[in-house]
Every structure is written in structure tokens, then in C-alpha cells.
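Bumping my old thread because nobody answered last time. Still need a sequence for this structure:
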């Protein structure tokens, strides 16, 4: 390993630590990720001939620029997908599309509510994404459960169910979106083979948590009221919900039919939903009023979570630099040597690491570390890639800071790190291991 390579790796490691310690440094991780991106590629520019044979003489700047643009092209497909999905979900939420979800969940039995919350979160996170689903479910829980101690148990299950639901869906988690965009998993493959392990990883914790709940819930008149999220009619709000959610479900089908990148499908859905909502609002009187204008797509585009988008841009491009200098390949070879090619153990460890550090750079790193090798565990839809989707997604549930869903629930419900670790970590870990075991049995019996 050359001196320049060591410098680049050192910059990445320092940046990674700063991201992991965001709560301590109080510096937004997006800022650190962007600095990592620029610093790594600037160091790379000092002597690109070490890594790119073409980068010689006066042409080296052009060659390096072309290399960055190549990686930026693949990264941007993920970013545009996320931006489109965020806008669609925000549009559904702001126009009251999730109101009927709350009505469906409502029950007086604490245990019945827990199972309804678990399954609804699991299903929605597979269609939307685990972060958005967590926010929606916590907002609903606040209307259904007044007792704080009961609500944090439900909220903890929301984290587990959201991460489990996102793990088997090609659009349910950023990591599965990345793997799907990269072409190492297919929509049908990951749904068929990771669905059952994901269900197991949710059902076991849900059952254990259900033992902690006894009695019934009481509802106040205030809780029973529905939130009127817009001036649209109930039918129009439901139309937006089903059109948006149905469109998200259609994206993998669109990719299969057209073979176009997933972000093209998500932009198609956004365009259709945008047009329909514009027609709805054009029929309203007083559409110029601020309240109505704020619920139109043109206004919602200004509220996209840009720090998150920039974080993904920075971290994925920094990881791309490590891939270009060959560090990830070396690391992958080292892991294979140490663990003798045991992909269950390798991915199991990656999953546990994802509860400590962000799973996005972990998965990005793995995609750079391991090539696709046909007719092996590294083939498209092979054991390695499917287990990576499962472990990176579900593993984040073991600590409350281990996933975007956990972090947002932690902030909304003020759940402490210590309480979650004492009461929930072992439950999530049990579900995580059971899911891996389920995947192994499934592979031995049905997909051998």
C-alpha cells in the first residue's frame, strides 16, 4: 500500500468516525461526507497514474474527471430515485392520504394494536421506505396511545418492523435501492428469498413485546378526530394515496418491462401524481390560498430533505474513490481469507456493524469490495448479495442509532439510548439471528 493510498484511507476513516459521532460533534454528517468526497479525490489527483494507467502527462486531469463522472452517473441514479420517492410520500402525507391508515389501526386491545402496528409498518416500509414509514406510524401512534410507557414499546416495534419490511423490498431501504440499482439483486429475487426471513425478524420481537402489554386502550374525543390535511375530498385523498402507493409498487414492474433504471420509473410516477393533484387543486375555489399552495408538488419540492441527499452523494463518492484505488478489493480478499468464504458469518458481522455505523457506506463498500461472479454465491441474486440486503437492513434495529428509522423515532418519542439497549436490543438481536437461520433453512430446502 503506497503512502498516497494510506493518506486517502486515513481521511476516509477520520471522516467516517466524525459521521458516527455526529451526536457528539454536533456537525451535520452531510457536511463531513462532502468534505470526505472532495478530500479523497483531491488526494487522488496528486498521482492518479498509480491507479489509472491512462492518467499520464497532460491528460491526467481529463482522465480523473471522466472517472469521477462515471461514478457520479451511477450515484445520481440512487439520488434521483430518493428525491422522487420522498416527494411522492410527502405529497400523500400532506394531502391526508394516510388518514384511513389510522382508522384501520384503531382498536381498544393493546395486543391487537401491537400486531396491527407491526404488520402495517412492515407492509408500508416495503412500499414507501423505513424512514418515512416510521414518521407516519409515530404520528398515528400519538393519536392512538396516550400512555408514554406503552407508546415507547410500540415505537420500538415500529423501528424493528420498518427495518425488517425495508430489507426484502427493492424500494424499501436505501441499501436495497443501492443494490438494486447496481444490478446485484433483482426485485423478484430479493422479494422471494428475503421476504420470509424478514417476516421472522419482525414476528419474533413483536411476540416478545406483546407479552409486556396488558389491558385495553381508551380514546378521548380529541384522539377520535381525523386530521383534515387538505381541502380535497375524502375520495380525492384516497385517490392520491392509492395512486402514489400503487405507483411505487409499479416501479419494479416498470423496470422489468422496459429495462430502464429504477429512477426513470419513480419519475414517471411523480409526473403522473403531480398532474393528477394539479387537476384536483384546479377545481378548488380559493386555490391561491397559502394553505392549498403549500400542498402542491411545486411547494413540496422545496422541502426535500437535501442534507440527506447530500450525505448520500458525499459518502457514495468517497467510497467510489476507495474502490478506484483498489482498497475495497484488498479488504474483500482479506475478509474472504479470514472467514474462509463463510458469507453467513461475513454478512452477519456486517449487519451488527450497521447497528453502530451507517449502513449506507457499509453496503457501498461491499459493492466495491466484491465483484459479481456468475454461478457462485457472488452471482446476481446470490447468497452474498441477498444476505447483505437482509443483514444491513435488519441489523440496524439492534441499537436505536443504528438506522434512520431508529434515529427519527428516538427524536420524536425521546427514547434514550440506554433504555433501548436494555429493553429492546436483545429482542431485536434474537429476531435478527432467527431471520438468518430462516434464510439458511430456506436455501437448503427450496433454493439449493
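Sorry it took so long. Here it is:
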Amino acid at each position: 500500500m503506497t503512502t498516497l493510498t494510506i493518506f486517502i484511507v486515513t481521511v476516509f476513516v477520520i471522516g467516517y468516525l466524525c459521521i458516527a459521532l455526529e451526536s457528539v460533534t454536533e456537525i451535520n454528517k452531510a457536511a463531513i461526507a462532502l468534505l470526505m468526497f472532495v478530500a479523497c479525490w483531491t488526494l487522488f489527483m496528486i498521482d492518479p497514474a498509480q491507479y489509472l494507467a491512462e492518467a499520464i502527462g497532460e491528460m491526467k486531469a481529463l482522465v480523473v474527471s471522466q472517472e469521477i463522472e462515471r461514478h457520479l452517473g451511477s450515484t445520481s441514479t440512487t439520488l434521483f430515485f430518493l428525491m422522487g420517492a420522498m416527494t411522492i410520500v410527502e405529497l400523500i402525507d400532506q394531502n391526508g392520504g394516510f388518514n384511513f391508515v389510522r382508522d384501520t389501526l384503531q382498536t381498544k386491545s393493546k395486543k391487537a394494536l401491537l400486531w396491527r402496528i407491526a404488520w402495517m409498518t412492515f407492509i408500508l416500509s416495503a412500499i414507501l421506505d423505513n424512514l418515512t414509514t416510521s414518521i407516519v406510524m409515530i404520528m398515528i401512534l400519538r393519536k392512538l396511545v396516550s400512555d408514554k410507557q406503552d407508546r415507547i414499546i410500540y415505537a420500538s416495534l415500529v423501528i424493528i418492523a420498518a427495518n425488517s419490511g425495508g430489507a426484502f423490498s427493492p424500494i424499501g431501504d436505501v441499501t436495497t435501492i443501492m443494490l438494486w440499482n447496481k444490478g446485484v439483486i433483482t426485485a423478484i429475487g430479493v422479494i422471494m428469498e428475503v421476504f420470509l426471513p424478514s417476516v421472522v425478524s419482525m414476528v419474533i420481537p413483536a411476540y416478545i413485546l406483546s407479552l409486556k402489554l396488558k389491558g385495553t386502550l381508551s380514546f378521548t374525543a380529541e384522539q377520535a378526530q381525523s386530521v383534515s390535511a387538505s381541502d380535497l375530498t375524502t375520495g380525492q385523498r384516497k385517490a392520491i394515496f392509492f395512486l402514489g402507493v400503487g405507483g411505487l409498487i409499479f416501479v419494479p414492474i416498470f423496470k422489468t418491462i422496459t429495462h430502464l433504471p429504477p429512477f426513470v420509473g419513480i419519475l414517471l410516477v411523480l409526473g403522473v401524481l403531480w398532474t393528477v393533484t394539479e387537476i384536483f387543486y384546479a377545481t378548488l375555489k380559493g386555490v391561491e390560498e397559502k394553505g392549498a399552495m403549500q400542498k402542491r408538488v411545486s411547494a413540496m419540492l422545496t422541502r426535500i430533505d437535501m442534507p440527506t441527499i447530500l450525505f448520500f452523494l458525499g459518502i457514495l463518492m468517497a467510497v467510489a474513490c476507495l474502490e478506484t484505488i483498489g482498497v475495497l478489493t484488498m479488504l474483500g480478499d482479506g475478509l474472504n481469507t479470514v472467514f474462509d468464504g463463510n458469507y453467513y458469518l461475513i454478512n452477519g458481522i456486517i449487519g451488527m456493524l450497521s447497528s453502530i455505523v451507517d449502513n449506507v457506506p457499509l453496503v457501498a463498500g461491499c459493492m466495491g469490495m466484491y465483484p459479481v461472479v456468475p454461478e457462485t454465491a457472488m452471482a446476481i441474486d446470490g447468497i452474498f448479495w441477498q444476505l447483505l440486503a437482509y443483514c444491513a437492513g435488519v441489523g440496524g434495529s439492534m441499537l436505536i442509532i443504528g438506522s434512520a428509522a431508529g434515529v427519527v423515532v428516538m427524536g420524536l418519542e425521546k427514547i434514550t439510548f440506554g433504555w433501548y439497549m436494555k429493553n429492546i436490543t436483545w429482542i431485536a438481536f434474537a429476531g435478527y439471528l432467527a431471520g438468518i437461520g430462516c434464510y439458511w433453512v430456506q436455501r437448503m430446502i427450496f433454493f439449493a
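The mean pLDDT is 82. Let me know if any region looks off to you.
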